């Protein structure tokens, strides 16, 4: 039987004892109807019981609650929680004392009317310029917080609303956010926001500063990735959709949302065929205490990155232009020329690669007279191809015929373990000086092997980039008193000795998105097995990935090192990694022997750019000199 969790209806939304006659708050408030929009504040509730205009239970969409307030001239603000909408004739703009934090048991969304030119019709820097649809709330404010990011422009203004208007009117760049300093009146505008910046430490608390984030910008919605957040769902969402047929349809609703920039969704966790969407995700909930409800078997799908790619066919070259919704650091290159036809990208949302038709460094193919093609890779890491990367097949056709447009998908590769043994073995006798009346025992260092396995410990024979794998380290001696620790684990390619450090000299992962911390594996016989989880990757110049690690025995046991690990969203957590030896309190009678282990796997590129059989994950982006159709 399906679990049904219906929204909680909370009395705090109706206001507590902070009321008073507030109907006069709207008096004197004047704004053209086309310029009336809303400012959203998450985690706060407005209390004014004598100013309540209407209470609507069963309201499942924030947009419906806002529309109800929009239609009433006397309505100035609202409180919304999933399932309940309360309208007020006053707002926190004129009565700030009525606004208080509301984060338990669920967090409240408060919205109040404001007047911004072009928020609906689209000013030069507003919805029209960015391609975003007209939305019924324009900005979200995070009180007492500042976004630490690059500032494109400063202005001195009189109010928070004036700062919003400046951001909306910005012509020289897409203004995604602004910091308003109450004391100085400084309005610092940026083309970044909480979702585009790398990491989650950029938004920090600071008194007398408000962070303003625009809802009037558009984001790429092609080639999008969602990561699973298991065991939890948001307590409050923007909209609830019923009778949604599948998870894919729910995902589509999120990507095609017009009322807000959807960043997360869950499906069938609160009822059969129920799809819930939210403009919030982990990067925007740092200031909310416990925004998620812990729920077994529930999954929140959180948007990570999207890419819109267009191809510009010019007289002597083609230009692949990429727009993304998260700051990109990596490279884009021609697949057959990863070193000579490449564009390095640093902290950018928009980047491009130019491929000359007669440039030997780029190796653009001429399939027929007037028809050119190239295979392109968008690579996140500077050195290796990972599961996040994207492969594109670009085509330019110089004719007057209509052209088609598609989009790229994930790069897929597969491989088999290279021939040879299962690793390198090493053993050495300990040394000890014989002393009169003293018995000396020699303990042989353990024999250690390294294997490439799946997460269950089974040896692998094929793999795709992004597959969940592990490096496992085994002590073959059943009765050895030793344990082992692993450090200085590197991956090398099989061509030009390019290498990347995965586990440092302390035993901590250098990039947890590539390889995780070293942990112990429970075994039936009690033998020590260590594993380092990773997602399969390869180097762009080689189909061979070789792993090399330094393994050291220790007595009587190895203590873990505590590592600070940062995830994809910048959240830092402390984990144990078995990568350091325990200091001995007495001299050992044997000696530890460092062991160098090596193992390799051959990864063959399965991307069939040219053939593109039915069902292939490779798509092409085509453009012609005549009538062009490109992605947006």
What does this structure look like?
This protein has 4 helices and 36 strands. It has helices spanning 62-71, 127-130, 160-169, 247-255; strands at residues 36-42, 44-46, 52-57, 77-81, 84-88, 99-101, 109-115, 139-147, 153-156, 177-181, 186-190, 203-214, 225-234, 239-241, 264-267, 275-278, 292-305, 307-313, 317-334, 337-356, 365-368, 371-379, 390-397, 409-410, 413-417, 448-454, 468-475, 483-493, 499-503, 519-520, 529-535, 544-554, 561-566, 572-577, 595-605, 620-624. The strands form 7 sheets. A 10-stranded mixed sheet has the order 3-5-4-7-1-8-12-10-11-9, with helices on both faces. It has 5 domains: 11-115, 3-Layer(bba) Sandwich (Hepatocyte Growth Factor), CATH 3.50.4.10; 139-214, Hepatocyte Growth Factor, CATH 3.50.4; 225-305, Hepatocyte Growth Factor (3-Layer(bba) Sandwich); 322-412 and 612-624, no CATH class; 416-605, Sandwich (Immunoglobulin-like), CATH 2.60.40. 5% of the residues lie in helices and 41% in strands. The chain is mainly beta and 632 residues long. The two termini are 43 Å apart. It is globular, with a radius of gyration of 29 Å. One of its GO terms (biological process) is anatomical structure morphogenesis. Residues 1-19 form the signal peptide. Residues 312-570 form the ZP domain.
């Amino acid at each position: 039987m399906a679990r049904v969790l219906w929204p909680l209806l909370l009395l705090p939304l109706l206001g507590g004892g902070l009321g008073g006659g507030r109907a006069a708050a709207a008096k004197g408030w004047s704004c053209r109807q086309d310029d009336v929009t809303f400012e959203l504040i998450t985690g706060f509730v407005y209390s004014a019981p004598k100013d309540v205009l209407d209470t609507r239970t069963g309201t499942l969409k924030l947009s419906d609650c806002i529309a109800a307030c929009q239609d009433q001239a006397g309505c100035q603000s609202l409180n919304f929680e999933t399932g309940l909408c309360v309208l007020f004739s006053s707002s926190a703009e004129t009565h700030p004392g009525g606004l208080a934090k509301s984060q338990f048991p669920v967090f409240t969304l408060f919205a109040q009317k404001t007047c911004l030119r072009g928020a609906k019709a689209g000013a030069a820097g507003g919805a029209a310029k960015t391609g975003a649809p007209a939305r019924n709330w324009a900005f979200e404010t995070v009180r007492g917080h500042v976004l630490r990011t690059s500032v494109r422009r400063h202005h001195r203004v009189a109010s928070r609303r004036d700062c919003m208007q400046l951001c909306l009117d910005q012509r020289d760049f897409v203004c995604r956010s602004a910091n308003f300093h109450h004391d100085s009146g400084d309005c610092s505008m940026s083309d970044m926001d909480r979702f585009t910046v790398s990491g989650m430490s950029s938004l920090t608390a600071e008194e007398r500063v408000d962070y303003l984030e625009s809802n009037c910008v558009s984001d790429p919605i092609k080639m999008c990735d969602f990561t699973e957040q298991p065991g939890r769902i948001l307590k409050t969402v923007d909209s609830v959709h019923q009778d949604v047929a599948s998870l894919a349809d729910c995902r589509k609703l999120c990507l095609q949302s017009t009322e807000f920039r959807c960043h997360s969704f869950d499906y069938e966790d609160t009822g059969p065929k129920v799809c819930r969407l939210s403009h919030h995700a982990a990067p925007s909930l740092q200031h909310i205490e416990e925004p998620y409800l812990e729920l077994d078997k529930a999954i929140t799908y959180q948007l990570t990155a999207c890419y819109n790619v267009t191809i510009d066919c010019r007289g002597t070259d083609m230009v692949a232009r990429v727009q993304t919704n998260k700051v990109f650091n990596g490279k884009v290159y021609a697949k057959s020329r990863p070193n000579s036809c490449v564009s390095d990208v640093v902290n950018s949302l928009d980047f491009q690669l130019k491929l000359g038709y007669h440039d030997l460094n780029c190796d653009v193919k001429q399939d027929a007279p007037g028809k050119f093609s190239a295979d392109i890779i968008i690579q996140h890491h500077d050195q290796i191809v990972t599961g996040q990367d994207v492969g594109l097949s670009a085509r330019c056709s110089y004719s007057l015929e209509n052209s088609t447009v598609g989009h790229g998908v994930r790069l897929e590769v597969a491989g088999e373990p290279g021939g040879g043994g299962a690793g390198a073995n090493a053993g050495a006798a300990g040394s000890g000086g014989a002393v009169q009346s003293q018995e000396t025992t020699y303990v042989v260092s353990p024999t250690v092997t390294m294997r490439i396995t799946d997460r269950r410990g089974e040896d692998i024979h094929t793999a795709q980039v992004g597959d969940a794998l592990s490096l496992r380290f085994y002590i073959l001696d059943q009765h050895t008193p030793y344990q082992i620790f692993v450090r200085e684990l590197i991956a090398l390619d099989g061509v030009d000795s390019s290498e990347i450090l995965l586990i440092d000299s302390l035993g901590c992962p250098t990039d947890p998105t590539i390889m995780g911390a070293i942990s112990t594996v429970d075994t039936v016989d009690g033998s020590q097995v260590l594993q380092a989880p990773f997602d399969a990757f390869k180097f762009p110049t080689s189909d061979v990935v070789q792993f090399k690690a330094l393994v050291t025995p220790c007595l009587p046991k190895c203590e873990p090192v505590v590592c600070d690990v940062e995830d994809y969203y910048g959240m830092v957590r402390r984990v144990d990694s078995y990568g350091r030896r325990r200091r001995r309190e007495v001299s050992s009678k044997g000696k530890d022997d460092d062991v160098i282990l090596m193992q390799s796997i051959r990864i063959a590129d399965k991307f069939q750019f040219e053939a593109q059989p039915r069902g292939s994950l490779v798509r092409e982006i085509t453009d012609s000199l005549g009538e062009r159709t490109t992605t947006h």
